[in-house]
């Protein structure tokens, strides 16, 4: 059975070995060497870094407040990062160890600047800038500055990149770490056995990414597949194996801690739906077609790097997502944002294909080139602008804790009882203590800080019922109608007591939530 990489010289790994003059060992041209059809030199390489980086920065800062909204996962980051270091350390012993390093980083950020949603999301913006620059550097190294510039732009402008660039969670930081680890892998394989500093950088950067979220680890599988596809020599396999082992050893304490928290951490997940599988297959097919095109067209002089780019990109696009989805058939662990870094594997071949298209334009008359450029820009704006506006709106997330807090503030009276149904929706008010503090939390046994949990612990069902019946007016914060109901005794007694002993006075619907005012019969009037 032929190897997927096809016939290759023994010296070739991920990249062709290049000498300082820009020639390949077999005499071909370096992709970005003068005369190879792409701009070379420092200017071209700088453009390939700066253009994607500046684009990602502008995109990330545009609408960073998301119309004064914040969803519940971001609220977790906000309230946990504002805890004391002692309380934060106690929390990580019980839950969310997987996010521990990120919470410590955000604790430091808020210590320097407590700037609300902007401070919450700024680290993700800066990480996306780094990731876009990293994609540009990889594309430049493998296929020239034009490919690098366009690949970095594609990555920065992907709607999913724009979305998580403005998310107060760790996913953009993980993406930056995996992207730069991938670049260090490329550099390390250019001269096997002579670049220990690149292997060291690879291991350290990927370890950091894994400590920001352990699901960065599947990137190791993607990198291993790249080496296999590239027919890497033994020296490369040996060096990579040592680096991968170091990453695994460094991650083991976090993996051990989070394994014991997995049921509480990921118990809400279900197995991948048919829609998820179809999206994965569609994206994988698109990436495979692009890589097949690049591999097929890369036999000519000046295009050898695009075949290497394909061998790097496709495993990164497919392997981490596919691995988590397959594992999730037995143990649900998959959420698309956990492997956001796979999008670098789509942006790289897309940038190479666009670079090839731009090259073909040089055969057109000047007027035709100008018209083509204008039409391409118009199509890009028409496609991207609606998505760009959507991801900067509250509607792009499951709920909006800011809207919930404002609605409760308008509706509640001082001393009203409050119930969270289910209990984990207490998160909706934890980031707004000035609103939460006005209310009597009827079910709360211990606060989140005291109990060292995310949303606190609740009283037994019988005590919740007793406290409910002693209240005249209760604000219930619930999921929208039609959502599954938790079967736990505390949740059942909340629903039953409100239904049999109270009447609904007012119902306010906001994004992803309902605020329902209940009162004892005859007490609805203000």
Core attributes:
526 residues; alpha/beta; five-stranded mixed β-sheet; two-stranded antiparallel ribbon; 22 helices; 7 strands; disordered N terminus
State the major sheet: 5 strands, mixed
How far do the termini sit from each other?
80 Å
The pLDDT mean sits at 87
Helical content, roughly? 55-70%
**How many individual helices?**
22
Strand fraction equals 5-15%
What is the C-alpha radius of gyration, as a whole number of Å? 26 Å
Order of helices and strands: HHHHHHHHHHHHHHHHHEHHEEHEHEHEE
Form type:
elongated
- Give the number of DSSP strands: 7
Tell me about this structure.
The protein has 526 residues and is an alpha/beta fold. The chain has 22 helices and seven strands. It is elongated. It starts with 40 loop residues before the first helix and ends in a 7-residue tail after the last strand.
Short description:
With 526 residues, this protein is an alpha/beta fold. It has helices spanning 41-61, 72-81, 85-92, 100-112, 116-143, 145-157, 159-165, 171-190, 196-212, 218-229, 234-259, 262-266, 274-296, 304-327, 344-361, 366-391, 401-411, 427-430, 433-436, 448-451, 461-469, 489-501; strands spanning 417-421, 440-441, 444-446, 457-458, 473-478, 503-510, 513-519. α1 runs antiparallel to α5 (116-143), α7 (159-165) crosses α16 and α13 packs antiparallel against α14.
């Amino acid at each position: 059975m032929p190897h997927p990489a096809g016939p290759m010289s023994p010296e070739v790994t991920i990249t062709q070995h290049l000498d300082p003059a820009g020639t390949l060992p077999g005499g071909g041209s370096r992709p970005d060497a003068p005369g190879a059809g792409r701009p070379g030199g420092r200017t071209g390489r700088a453009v390939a870094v700066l253009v994607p980086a500046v684009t990602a920065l502008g995109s990330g800062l545009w609408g960073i407040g998301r119309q004064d909204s914040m969803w519940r996962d971001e609220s977790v980051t906000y309230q946990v990062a504002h805890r004391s270091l002692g309380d934060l350390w106690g929390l990580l012993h019980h839950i969310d160890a997987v996010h521990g390093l990120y919470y410590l980083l955000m604790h430091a950020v808020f210590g320097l600047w407590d700037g609300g949603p902007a401070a919450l999301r700024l680290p993700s913006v800066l990480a996306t800038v780094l990731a876009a620059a990293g994609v540009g550097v990889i594309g430049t190294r493998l296929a020239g500055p034009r490919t690098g510039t366009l690949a970095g732009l594609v990555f920065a402008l992907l709607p999913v990149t724009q979305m998580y660039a403005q998310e107060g969670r760790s996913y953009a930081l993980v993406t930056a770490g995996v992207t730069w680890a991938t670049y260090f892998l490329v550099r390390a394989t250019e001269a096997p056995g002579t670049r220990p500093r690149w292997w060291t950088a690879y291991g350290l950067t990927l370890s950091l990414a894994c400590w920001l979220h352990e699901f960065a680890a599947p990137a190791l599988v993607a990198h291993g597949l790249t080496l296999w596809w590239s027919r890497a020599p033994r020296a490369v396999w040996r060096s990579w194996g040592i680096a991968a082992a170091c990453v695994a050893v460094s991650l083991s304490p976090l993996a051990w801690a989070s394994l014991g928290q997995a049921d509480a951490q990921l118990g809400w997940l279900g197995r991948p739906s048919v829609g998820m599988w179809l999206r994965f297959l569609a994206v994988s097919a698109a990436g495979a077609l692009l890589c097949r095109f690049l591999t097929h067209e890369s036999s000519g002089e000046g295009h050898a790097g695009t075949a290497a780019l394909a061998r790097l990109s496709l495993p990164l696009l497919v392997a981490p997502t596919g691995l988590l989805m397959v594992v999730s058939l037995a143990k649900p662990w998959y959420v698309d944002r956990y492997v956001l870094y796979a999008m670098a594997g789509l942006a790289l071949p897309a940038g190479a294909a666009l670079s090839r298209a731009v090259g073909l334009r040089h055969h057109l008359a000047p007027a035709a080139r100008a018209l083509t450029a204008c039409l391409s820009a118009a199509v890009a704006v028409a496609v991207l602008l609606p998505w760009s506006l959507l991801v900067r709106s509250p509607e792009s997330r499951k709920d909006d804790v800011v809207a919930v807090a404002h609605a409760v503030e308008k509706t509640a009276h001082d001393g009203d009882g409050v119930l969270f149904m289910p209990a984990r929706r207490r998160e909706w008010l934890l980031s707004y203590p000035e609103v939460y503090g006005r209310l009597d939390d009827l079910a709360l046994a211990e606060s989140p800080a005291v109990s060292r949990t995310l949303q606190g612990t609740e009283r037994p069902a019988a005590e919740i019922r007793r406290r409910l019946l002693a209240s005249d007016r209760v604000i219930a914060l619930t999921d929208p109608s039609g959502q599954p109901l938790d079967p736990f005794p505390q949740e059942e007694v909340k629903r039953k007591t409100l239904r049999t002993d109270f009447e609904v006075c007012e119902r306010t619907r906001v994004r992803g939530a309902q605020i329902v005012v209940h009162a004892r019969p005859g007490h609805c009037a203000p």
